[in-house]
UniProtKB/TrEMBL annotation:
GO CC annotations on file: outer membrane-bounded periplasmic space
Native source species: Gordonia lacunae
UniProt GO BP: thiamine transport
Keywords, sorted A to Z: Signal
Protein name: Thiamine ABC transporter substrate-binding protein
Domain of life: Bacteria
InterPro entries documented for this protein: ThiB-like
One term of GO molecular function: thiamine binding
SUPFAM superfamilies in alphabetical order: Periplasmic binding protein-like II
Signal peptide, first to last residue: 1-40
Length: 356
């Protein structure tokens, strides 16, 4: 989303991820390049590209500085809440964008900016290396995949072991009060991981998904606004050392937080995209940024910085990472068009089920 992520690791780590996601307050962060000789395209207001993104965006400054060195363009990063908030911001300003490109809108929210006409099509030549396989159906070139992660429930195994308790074996076990009361999940109306987990229950449980949520919340589960609060404040293995040993995060989060694991039957795939904003004053620079996000330098850094998988084939992963961040063998999945068509209805039904 990653709300992908960050996780108690260093960057998004949505599981510090989704990724410490150590979050910098949602604000404009300028990575200033001092190249006075750099030139942007004729439609640009200067030698700068502005990227709108979510709070969990994190890449090392040397990697980002490479963009300036390669293109002569400064990169200004403006963070704007969770993926859902980001999608709303972009969708409300078609043709009059607050930046040149946007990164972090995921497959659960992709339909919003597409339907709003807020994106300028561009098919990066680099996408043939793997990103094209994750393209939004029927919207070629409007959003380019950059990374993928899988939203899953995470378990603090150490917490259960220290109390000689058996942890849940499936997301279905959360209907039992002894597990529900130990769980922190995120609101699907405000959090992209929350949306993903809602879709997991819709896809896996069919007509029984509303009863599932009624039981989980009645059993004492805590519902919060976003991933950062759930993982970094409430999770017993998170940075805040909270009191919830079960939390909604990512399948990759255990790579960042030793002693934890993911319930791999509870996962929903989350693809994060970059897109060019319609009305940008620097279309050429934005295209260069899309290409850059698919470059080997960025792709190989994604697992360590944001705890997500790269989309480009043959990108090396950190040593031991696949073993710690196991890819689910099965995932609930729904097409973006189906999500778009039913999202508001499902949210209304979810609110009714949990009494919010």
């Amino acid at each position: 989303m990653n709300e992908l992520r960050t996780d108690g690791l260093s960057g998004r780590r949505r599981g510090r991820s989704r990724r410490t996601r150590v979050v910098v307050a949602a604000a404009a962060i300028a990575l200033v390049a001092t190249s006075a000789t750099a030139c942007a395209d004729d439609s640009s207001s200067g030698a700068e590209v502005t990227l709108l993104t979510h709070d969990s965006f994190e890449l090392p400054e040397p990697v980002l500085d490479a963009f300036r060195q390669e293109t002569g363009l400064a990169l200004k990063i403006v963070k704007s809440g969770d993926a859902g908030q980001l999608a709303s911001t972009v969708s409300l300003t078609p043709g009059a964008p607050k930046g040149d490109a946007v990164f972090g809108i995921d497959n659960t929210f992709a339909s919003r900016p597409i339907d709003a006409g807020a994106l300028e099509p561009y098919e990066s030549p680099a996408a043939a290396g793997g990103a094209a396989e994750y393209a939004v159906p029927g919207a070629a070139g409007q959003l380019t995949a950059v990374d993928r992660g899988d939203v899953c429930l995470n378990i603090d195994n150490g917490w259960f072991e220290s109390r000689s308790l058996t942890p849940p074996a499936s997301f279905r076990d959360l209907t039992r009060p002894e597990f529900a009361s130990l769980t922190a999940v995120t609101d699907p109306a405000t959090s992209s991981p929350g949306t993903a987990f809602l879709l997991t229950t819709v896809g896996a449980l069919g007509n029984g998904w509303q009863d599932y949520w009624k039981q989980v919340v009645a059993g004492g589960a805590t519902v919060v606004s976003g991933w950062e609060v759930a993982y970094n404040q409430l999770f017993t293995a998170g940075e805040g050392r909270g009191d919830k040993p079960i939390v909604l995060s990512y399948a990759s989060s255990p790579a960042a937080t030793p002693g934890t694991s993911a319930l791999l039957d509870s996962c929903f795939p989350q693809i994060e995209y970059i897109g060019i904003l319609k009305g940008t004053r620097n279309s050429t620079g934005a295209r260069k940024l899309v290409d850059f996000m698919l470059s080997p330098a960025v792709q190989k850094e994604l697992p360590s910085s944001m705890y997500v998988y790269p989309v480009q084939r043959d990108t090396p992963l950190p040593a031991g990472w696949p073993a710690r961040a196991e890819v689910p063998a099965w995932m609930s999945s729904l097409p973006p068009a189906t999500i778009a068509e039913n999202r508001e209805m499902w949210l209304d039904q979810w609110r009714a089920a949990v009494g919010r």
